[in-house]
Amino acid sequence: MAEEFGTVIIGAGIGGGTVVESLRDAGYAGSIALVGADPAAPYYRPDLSKKVMLENSDPADSALRGDDWYSAHDVTTFFGTAVTAIDPAAQTVTLDDDRQLTYGQAILATGSTPRSLDVPGAQLGNIHTLRDAGDAVAIRSQFGDGKKVAVIGGGWIGLEVAAAAKTQGCDVTVILHTDAPPLASVLGDELGEYFEQLHSSNGVNFLKQADTTSFTGTDAVESVETSAGSVPADLVVVGIGADPAVDLAASAGLTVDNGVIVDEQMRTSDGSILAIGDIANAQNVLRNERLRVEHWDNAVRQAEVAASTVSGGSKVEDWQPYFYTDQFDLGMEYVGRGGADDDVVIRGDKSSGEFIVFWQHGGRVSAAMNVNVWDYGDELRALIGKEVAAERLADEQVPVGDL
Hints:
There is one protein chain. By secondary structure, this protein is an alpha/beta fold. The chain is about 25% helix and about 30% strand. It contains eleven helices and 25 strands. The chain has helices spanning about 15-25, 50-55, 65-70, 135-140, 155-165, 185, 190-200, 245-250, 295-310, 375-385, 390-395, and strands at about 5-10, 30-35, 75-80, 85, 90-95, 100-110, 110-115, 125-130, 150, 170-175, 205, 210-215, 220-225, 230, 235-240, 240-245, 260, 275, 280-285, 290, 320-325, 330-335, 345-350, 355-360, 365-370. Strands 1, 2, 3, 4, 5, 6 and 18 form a seven-stranded mixed β-sheet that branches. A hairpin with a 3-residue loop joins strand 12 and strand 13 (about 220-225). The longest helix is centred in the last third of the chain and has 15 residues, at about 295-310.
């Protein structure tokens, strides 16, 4: 016999955990089920490539709430449990142990799945992707002086892992399949080169125009074979992007197109199902466009919107995308969404390690990034979409708040 709930949340990451808190904070009195394949209660995933790898902290220290919080707030948890099917007509969720839950509202927060490499030797030990706490602990356990670490991919996860491994004394090589600098597709060549130089100056090696063709070793990996040569490796971290986990949504008949299509209040094509986080291709009313963003800040904000929708509120997606990174002595925050071909304006001296970057498209500020310069977040966010002369953006004599 199915267990009945007012709201069933599928996915117990930071998005799912925030929905639960936001529902209770909003006074929602209905019964709640929180289902997640991860055996741990919701935790702050950005810590995996930062605190866990840099400080060897316990992932449990990054939990959103203590385990007892959920029972104290009348939340039934199904951790370490996958959902195998959703039946929108019957409004039921089937778990991997064949139990069924009924719902008045379901919220999909299934996140994304790291891409892997389907090449010979991919089954060898010590080849990892980074998605959950178990991955982070397994990767961190292999760090040590002189350990050879190969990172495949130069995105945010790849560079954060590379920085953490190098800080822990490893010999690190980042393998890129093009000749472009890392992050060029997001930040453009000039800032991509800045990040490459940051890593190079800290002893990280780069191998470019290198397609991974196989891994070699007996039980554990010993080398990465590429089109540009062989890279010795005691540990490999594959960071070549992720795909939204939309199989459940698609099999339930929801509209899927680069994620699950949702409106500004996180409603899917089925009125009883919402979607948030990495999978949500949402209507952003501030930018007047659809966005699918794979960053924790977006998941948290969308969770608050979804809780508002379920509770009868009026919150909508009306913010600029945001993310941050910490690599070596660099701390950075980025807001907006620029293009690799946008015009780049730099305020300050890059060589000082403290500066602000603006991206412009058609004379309007499309994105801004503060590097080791703090307390400008609100001012930079307010500039997105505004027409500001490039000379004025670059002029340090003009206070950021006056731009």
